[in-house]
Amino acid sequence: MKLRFIFILLASVCGSVLLAAETIAKQPVLVSVHGAWAGGWQMKKVAPLLEAKGWKVYRPSMSGLGEHFNTASPDIGLATHIDDIVNFILFEDLHDVILLGHSYGGMVITGVADRIPERLSRLIYLDAFLPEDGESVMTIPKVGFMDIKKMTVEGFIIPTWVKPGQGFPKDVPHPLKTFTDPIVLKNPAGAKVPVTYILTVDPARNPKRTPSSLPLNAPERVAGPC
Length: 226
Hints:
By secondary structure, this protein is of the alpha/beta class. It is 26% helix and 14% strand. The strands form 2 sheets. It has a 5-stranded parallel β-sheet, sandwiched between helices.
């Protein structure tokens, strides 16, 4: 899916779905969590659009990814990435955070909500995994998912679409352990954080599968097809 389309859609949906955040006196805060193989650069184009409307946007890169690719290790797991975002929010001393996860980032923001729900005002899943307790990326039912086993080399999932010598920013090898680790959800308060799910669909096509296990606090809006 073209990222430019996603950026435009997200800017539009944030403006219409999160009106409550814009009516409060303090500046609305968005922390974006990127997808697999990517980094904070994935949201570089949408950040200025939201900041021009008065938002404060953070786009951290998780361990071993983005500009941190030099620290990559097959020992990096899902819990590592959850810790990354939890610690980022705590060390930046952020409150009332609108936490957005794209694709694999949905696994991460679900774990963050379980850990620090009191710091969050909303979760936004952008074409993202929405796991239940005990599920992993590899166990959640999916349609047409890439063959991860064939892409795996020495504990890393290699982005085969990246050309040799391609310049930065670019997708980088992703730790396999983050896909195989099951998520552990223990805090009932995490399931009470309001949720919005954004589903993007190519024009003239119907989605093969919509989120099948939405939390009890059902999303206010599912965007798509567009």
